[in-house]
Amino acid sequence: xxxxxxxxxxxxxxxxxxxxxxxxxxxxxxxxxxxxxxxxxxxxxxxxxxxxxxxxxxxxxxxxxxxxxx
Length: 70
Prior knowledge:
mainly alpha, 2 helices
């Protein structure tokens, strides 16, 4: 069986706010309810910065060059 490595989280191909991203991670993999969706999203992005391309950037965003999208 061929595996698609371009989207290992199998999330929709769209831009998320950090809160929406955290909620999508929680719905997909679960998570403790005492951690907010924002905190879960931030923790996941800190560990896997390549997913920051899926996060909406503010107009005054300054690239940190840890991904290929910004």
